[in-house]
């Protein structure tokens, strides 16, 4: 899975243009101080992307990618594959642009995410584990729609990078940013923006131990392949993808390290966000706080990204019951 040809990196200018393009469609989420964290050496701020209209950061990349399409192309409709949050984001953006959306989702996707995607008017096509890309290609052939990938595209990376732009504007003295890693679009974009505007800040990726392909890849210096069965073990269903050549190249350029957290640490972070921050986070959205609690990072102002809040109610009840 090594890199075969040069990859063109997204720039801070791309991210600034994305910010202007999506401004009318997405929430500029606040940077919330968290005095309850109780760590004077590492004061904490939270970037709550779970407050976005579809409950996750993915809406940023979706609006940027769809907004950049020529109108003649866009009217043919869009196709996406996703375990949930990208699906909802593309469905919502397509509804705003009044174009058809065809979304391929794995059968194991939480029902709340499937229902929300259909609720935006999208056609949902369910598929078996590990079949998303193949089925999406068939849907593109069938419909003539444009594929909007979940992370493997410069426009998606630039859209997600607008989060880093906002962090740099609101807390230019930030020392550490903790960001979830899955396919790598979020961390690639945030890392690019933060490193450009706050070059002394550390950007740290966070993965579940049970889906730690990127952490292993950083250790060996090239992408590695974990089976879908292995990656599906984690409760963090939004963090089961693997970086592409494009995103992994970005991650190598902008992440200082990648750390992992346990399933119990993820569950504890979900509960802490509810009880202390009054924020509902899905397990994937809570891993950055889990890392903040579990790891011994250098002192300094720390920001954790709460990337999404689309959690199954039954799972949330189970976690909160302890």
UniProtKB/TrEMBL annotation:
<dbReference type="GO" id="GO:0005524">
    <property type="term" value="F:ATP binding"/>
</dbReference>
<keyword id="KW-0663">Pyridoxal phosphate</keyword>
<dbReference type="GO" id="GO:0018114">
    <property type="term" value="F:threonine racemase activity"/>
</dbReference>
<dbReference type="GO" id="GO:0000287">
    <property type="term" value="F:magnesium ion binding"/>
</dbReference>
<dbReference type="GO" id="GO:0030378">
    <property type="term" value="F:serine racemase activity"/>
</dbReference>
<dbReference type="InterPro" id="IPR001926">
    <property type="entry name" value="TrpB-like_PALP"/>
</dbReference>
<dbReference type="GO" id="GO:0004794">
    <property type="term" value="F:threonine deaminase activity"/>
</dbReference>
<dbReference type="GO" id="GO:0003941">
    <property type="term" value="F:L-serine ammonia-lyase activity"/>
</dbReference>
<dbReference type="InterPro" id="IPR036052">
    <property type="entry name" value="TrpB-like_PALP_sf"/>
</dbReference>
<comment type="similarity">
    <text>Belongs to the serine/threonine dehydratase family.</text>
</comment>
<dbReference type="GO" id="GO:0070179">
    <property type="term" value="P:D-serine biosynthetic process"/>
</dbReference>
<dbReference type="GO" id="GO:0030170">
    <property type="term" value="F:pyridoxal phosphate binding"/>
</dbReference>
<dbReference type="Pfam" id="PF00291">
    <property type="entry name" value="PALP"/>
</dbReference>
<comment type="function">
    <text>Catalyzes the anaerobic formation of alpha-ketobutyrate and ammonia from threonine in a two-step reaction. The first step involved a dehydration of threonine and a production of enamine intermediates (aminocrotonate), which tautomerizes to its imine form (iminobutyrate). Both intermediates are unstable and short-lived. The second step is the nonenzymatic hydrolysis of the enamine/imine intermediates to form 2-ketobutyrate and free ammonia. In the low water environment of the cell, the second step is accelerated by RidA.</text>
</comment>
<keyword id="KW-0456">Lyase</keyword>
<feature type="domain" description="Tryptophan synthase beta chain-like PALP">
    <location>
        <begin position="25"/>
        <end position="308"/>
    </location>
</feature>
<protein>
    <recommendedName>
        <fullName>threonine ammonia-lyase</fullName>
        <ecNumber>4.3.1.19</ecNumber>
    </recommendedName>
</protein>
């Amino acid at each position: 899975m090594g890199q075969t040809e040069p990859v063109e990196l997204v720039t801070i200018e791309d991210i600034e243009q994305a910010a202007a393009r999506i401004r009318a469609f997405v929430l500029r989420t606040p940077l919330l101080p968290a005095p309850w964290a109780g760590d004077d050496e590492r004061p904490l701020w939270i970037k709550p992307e779970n407050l976005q209209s579809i409950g996750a950061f993915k809406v940023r990349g979706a609006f940027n990618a769809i907004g950049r399409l020529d109108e003649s192309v866009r009217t043919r409709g869009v196709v996406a594959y996703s375990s949930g949050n990208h699906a909802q984001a593309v469905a919502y953006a397509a509804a705003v642009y009044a174009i058809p959306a065809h979304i391929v989702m794995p059968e194991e996707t939480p029902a709340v995410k499937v229902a929300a995607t259909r609720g935006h008017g999208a056609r949902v096509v369910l598929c078996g584990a590990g079949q998303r890309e193949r089925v999406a290609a068939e849907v593109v052939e069938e419909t003539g729609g444009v594929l909007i990938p979940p992370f493997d595209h410069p426009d998606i990376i630039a859209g997600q990078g607008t989060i880093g732009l906002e962090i740099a504007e609101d807390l230019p003295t930030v020392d550490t940013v903790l960001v979830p890693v899955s396919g790598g679009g979020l961390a690639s974009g945030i890392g690019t923006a933060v490193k450009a505007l706050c070059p002394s800040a550390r950007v740290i990726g966070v993965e579940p131990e049970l889906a730690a392909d990127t952490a292993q890849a950083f250790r060996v210096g090239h992408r590695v392949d974990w089976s879908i069965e292995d990656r599906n073990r984690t409760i963090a269903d939004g963090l089961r993808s693997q970086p592409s050549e494009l995103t992994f190249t970005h991650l190598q350029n902008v992440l200082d390290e990648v750390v992992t957290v346990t399933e119990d640490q993820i569950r504890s972070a979900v509960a802490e966000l509810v009880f202390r921050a009054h924020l509902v986070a899905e397990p994937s959205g809570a891993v950055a706080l889990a890392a903040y609690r579990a790891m011994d990072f250098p002192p300094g102002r720390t920001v954790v990204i709460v990337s999404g809040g689309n959690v199954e109610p039954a799972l949330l009840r189970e976690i909160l019951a302890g």
